[in-house]
Design goal:
alpha/beta; eight-stranded mixed β-sheet; globular
């Protein structure tokens, strides 16, 4: 504990400070975010953003760690089976970063939103279209941007929603395909990059959907689509 207390922020965040300066790094300490979900995308986001200098992070997920999660959900080990995902992720972040306040909740989103917290940014790490619709409605009600992401097989999509309507996505009974860790981490990393640039006050494109996939020749393709504004 004494060793952690002796850690100097300027040393811990040295390479980021070289990237954008001490003032921006200190500004991140005043930011608060919510990560909704602690699966493949959620653990990637937690690892990328939990040590970035953001001052406060809330994570919610009512699920527990299963064996089939561990190969692609990078915060978990075999010893974590049966533990609440959000609590396990929060514990790991605290071990890595002494400068963040991280709070774990084991609530579904419809209960989590009733806590009526205020955030600078909300990050979707769910795998459910209807819950994403709820996140969009909630985010617009509290006038907070949110970052959507989804991934399956060898494709994924990410969007920083501000004024655009998420309702453009249609609900369906689509059964998700298989997934491997690298694609999950790739999409989660893009999601984290958009979030961190936004929080750091760097230019970032809002309401633009990035769709990434490998074509039949094995080329990684990125397409961009402007999203319609909410009515």
């Amino acid at each position: 504990m004494q060793e952690r207390k002796s850690i100097i922020p300027e040393n811990y965040f040295k390479r980021q400070i070289e990237l954008w300066g001490l003032e921006t790094q200190k500004a991140l300490q005043e930011k608060k975010i919510a990560i909704i979900g602690s699966g493949g995308l959620g653990t990637t986001l937690a690892m990328a953003l939990g040590t970035s200098g953001i001052g406060e992070i809330d994570i919610t997920d009512f699920d527990t760690v299963s064996l089939h999660n561990i190969h692609r959900q990078i915060a978990f080990t075999l010893g974590d089976k049966g533990q609440y995902k959000s609590e396990t992720v929060a514990k790991l972040i605290r071990c890595k970063n002494p400068f963040v306040k991280v709070t774990a909740y084991t609530l579904p989103f419809d209960e989590f939103k009733e806590l009526k917290q205020k955030y600078d940014l909300i990050l979707d790490a769910t795998d459910n279209l209807s819950v994403r619709g709820e996140i969009d409605t909630y985010a617009k009600a509290i006038q907070t941007p949110w970052v959507y992401a989804s991934v399956e097989e060898f494709n994924g999509q990410v969007c920083l929603f501000d004024e655009a309507a998420f309702q453009v996505f249609t609900m369906s009974d689509h059964t998700p395909g298989g997934i491997a860790a690298p694609m999950v981490m790739h999409i989660g990393a893009l999601q984290a990059n958009l979030a961190l640039r936004y929080l750091a006050g760097l230019p970032v494109e809002k309401d633009r959907l990035y769709y990434l996939y490998f074509n039949t020749e094995g080329e990684l393709v990125t397409q961009k689509f402007g999203m319609p504004k909410a009515l």
